[in-house]
Automatic annotation (TrEMBL):
Residues 13-148 form the Glycosyltransferase 2-like domain. The lineage of its organism: Bacteria, Bacillati, Actinomycetota, Actinomycetes, Streptosporangiales. Its EC number is 2.4.-.-. It comes from the Bacteria. Residues 278-287 have a biased composition (Polar residues). It comes from Actinomadura monticuli. This is Glycosyltransferase. PANTHER family: DOLICHYL-PHOSPHATE BETA-GLUCOSYLTRANSFERASE (PTHR10859:SF91), GLYCOSYL TRANSFERASE (PTHR10859). Keywords: Glycosyltransferase, Transferase. The keyword Transferase applies.
């Protein structure tokens, strides 16, 4: 007799991994145990991002309660790894998480409920009023994160934390956004979310319990300049106005949920998104 565990996976989670031989076994054990207790079939996709340690061997030999498969991505960069992993998925719901499992996996329960209700994008936010954040690295890094998110808020539907490594998507939407992704570095989250918003998707932020883990490869000194350059490219590709350059016509994008249900009272208006090269009048509607 069949069970709900038979058939294709309904949820696939991508875990990007660069030289994660030390942290990956513990992270996979936590994730697989959590997924085994969910009321839907789930699988894990570990993307080996050109590691030089035993990361790939750990995945190949993994024996756990849910399937874990290996994808190799020779192009370096977390964005490149997440893109490769998402494009390997087929499930109706997809997402990605960091190998260190800094975000407590209890947030998966709410994320799955929201996805099944029809929310197209669900992200963990350390700046949510009900989040618990423990040991958030150095003050300089925290200040940098706040500044970063203020700069990009208009691109990503107004959410306050774009960099938390806990993001989930309607499967076809996530794959379509990943296919357009060009940023390979740490700013890739912004571009990925921007592609979703440009397709009319609303972004739902949920509270998380987040604990800083040692071993992060991000460095404020080494990566800040590259992040700023990446943001400039993302904004340029989005056709957003740059000082001294004529503005591109702005067309409001209607969130998916407003097309499926009655609008909620006191709900903030959708974020205007600039569509490059598209002629429009102020009264034009998105198609």
């Amino acid at each position: 007799m069949g069970t709900w565990r038979d058939g294709p996976a309904l949820l696939e989670i991508v875990v990007p991994a660069y030289n994660e031989a030390d942290r990956l076994p513990g992270g996979l054990a936590l994730l697989c145990d959590k997924l085994a207790g969910l009321p839907l079939r789930a699988e894990v996709v570990v993307v080996d991002n050109a590691s030089t340690d035993g990361t790939a061997e750990i995945v190949r030999s993994w024996d756990g309660p849910v399937p874990v498969r290996l994808v190799r991505c020779e192009r370096r960069g977390k964005g490149a790894a997440v893109r490769a992993g998402l494009l390997e998925t087929r499930a109706p719901y997809v997402g990605f998480m960091d190998a260190d499992m800094a975000t407590d996996l209890a947030a998966l329960d709410e994320a799955i409920v929201l996805l099944r209700e029809g929310r197209p994008v669900v992200v963990g936010s350390r700046r949510h009023g009900r989040s618990v954040v423990q040991g958030y690295a150095l003050p300089l890094r925290r200040l940098g994160a706040i500044t970063f998110n203020r700069i990009v808020r208009d691109l990503v539907g107004g959410i306050q934390d774009t960099q938390c490594g806990f993001k989930f998507f309607d499967g076809p939407l996530g794959r379509a956004a990943a296919k357009q992704l060009r940023t390979t570095g740490f700013s890739f989250d912004v571009e990925l979310l921007a592609h979703c918003v440009r397709q009319g998707a609303s972004v739902t932020a949920i509270p998380v319990v987040w604990r800083d883990r040692p071993g992060s490869t991000f460095s404020v000194r080494r990566h800040s300049l590259q992040c700023m350059l990446d943001l400039a490219r993302i904004r340029a590709r989005a056709g957003l106005r740059v000082p001294g350059v004529p503005a591109t016509p702005i067309i409001p994008v209607v969130p998916i949920r407003t097309m499926l249900a009655e609008p909620k009272l006191n709900e903030p208006p959708p974020v205007p998104i600039a569509l490059p090269g598209q002629a429009s009048t102020p009264s034009a509607k998105s198609g």
